[in-house]
Request: fold
Amino acid sequence: MAKRLTQTTIDRGWPYQVAILAVHSEGSLADEQALYCNRLLRCSMINSITFEGQTYKVNCFATRAGAEAFISKFGGEWFDPRDRGRGVNADMWLKGSSSRSRGERP
Reply:
């Protein structure tokens, strides 16, 4: 039986994460992204998060170069896993909350 990847395992093994609107990651676009990402060390699990009523897919990469190549080809924006909600809100994107908690300016 295969081991299930936990969110913590994903965040540690694939720390370079990119959020892209779900509508830009469906159908033939999803197939194109899967083919393109075969060489980019992307995690096989892709999670969904919600921000301001819109759903995003979070693509996680083992290398910064892989994440940057994905952004260059398909768009998206950097996602900090510390901005993910907790508990019942685990699917919410609390965009920018990690920088505020560290006292950084947006």
